[in-house]
Amino acid sequence: xxxxxxxxxxxxxxxxxxxxxxxxxxxxxxxxxxxxxxxxxxxxxxxxxxxxxxxxxxxxxxxxxxxxxxxxxxxxxxxxxxxxxxxxxxxxxxxxxxxxxxxxxxxxxxxxxxxxxxxxxxxxxxxxxxxxxxxxxxxxxxxxxxxxxxxxxxxxxxxxxxxxxxxxxxxxxxxxxxxxxxxxxxxxxxxxxxxxxxxxxxxxxxxxxxxxxxxxxxxxxxxxxxxxxxxxxxxxxxxxxxxxxxxxxxxxxxxxxxxxxxxxxxxxxxxxxxxxxxxxxxxxxxxxxxxxxxxxxxxxxxxxxxxxxxxxxxxxxxxxxxxxxxxxxxxxxxxxxxxxxxxxxxxxxxxxxxxxxxxxxxxxxxxxxxxxxxxxxxxxxxxxxxxxxxxxxxxxxxxxxxxxxxxxxxxxxxxxxxxxxxxxxxxxxxxxxxxxxxxxxxxxxxxxxxxxxxxxxxxxxxxxxxxxxxxxx
Length: 473
Prior knowledge:
Layout: E1 3-8, H1 18-26, E2 29-36, H2 48-67, E3 73-76, H3 79-90, E4 92-98, H4 103-118, E5 122-126, H5 148-158, E6 172-173, H6 195-200, H7 205-219, H8 223-226, H9 239-243, H10 249-263, H11 265-291, H12 314-322, H13 328-340, H14 345-358, H15 363-373, H16 379-390, H17 405-412, H18 417-422, H19 441-447, H20 456-472
Parallel strand pairs: 1-2, 1-4, 2-3, 2-6, 4-5
Helix pairs in contact: 3-4, 5-11, 7-10, 10-11, 11-16, 13-14, 14-16, 15-16
């Protein structure tokens, strides 16, 4: 019953934290520790928007611990050396953590585990991020799934809304005199460009619970019908909270079940199942990344290694990144991303299709930009999402499925409210022109909005021709 270190990573919460609960149950003293070592996650070290969120999430966890008499100790890496030093300073006999599943981080964690055990320090790893470990759901032959529907059918049959763990209260919080102040980690942008992020988000465990409560009470009932409409608050926006572990998927499942009990399963059953299916896609993404770790850089479908991607020039990629393509729904999405660090999922598919098909640029260009600008940048989800849209991944949309951004806008933003919000230069345009403003050259001249950088019909034909050439090879 000596001291233990809880090594916080992307599990920045006290409730339903298996590593923290296990440490508090087995040891008299618990020291919460965060080790900042972004270089150990290369080549996918956190991007700028993720670093912004991390700063505020750590600040929230620090405040929560202080309110309970504890301290979040911050140190710089390397992780193994830092954990050894802190263990020596506190006479800690064990280190607890919740698992991460990115390839580089898994290798790092294995090295840390080996180093600590060689020094006589026990290690305990837990699942605090997923409903199921990536190896728990397997095909009849014991291998990984590559198609979502059978994967989710198997996972859904095993899913139960178990009670989350309460926040533990150790006998004593261990403290150390030295450590880094949060600002020393250098996570915030300089100069500040985070005004839109600060207006849009409340990072931290309390913010996560608040967002989930608002969704359950205000939007869940209409989720199945409204989740594809970017002009409405029809989604949960829980993705960054889940990524940073401010809330666990098990807590989300339990909250959905409680909401259905309060308001009637007959009324909310379809909505709950639709949302659980989206959690299932998150599980599937981690399943794929665990079993196919090379997909962060390479196509899962190797036939696409022969695809004739276009060579990007600086202007083409920059216009897509900055929301200056001349296609309103695409530009609205990219400007929402730049301002808030987030983009509606339907619009993510539209902008990804435009990049990989109309512009015919490799999906890696999009994955890298999203990685730097999304507050919910998650390597498993980012990889799976971009490969799905590009037609190169597991259970992917076929490459010849090319979204028509005008038709998508007419269907999912019929009153152009989303476009008007993010493209203020077109706010006064007639409704009929908001999806296709290039039909009025005078409007374009007055507004300063650019004409489309590619002809949608011609670029679609060129993409299909490129795909046919690949198939011919």
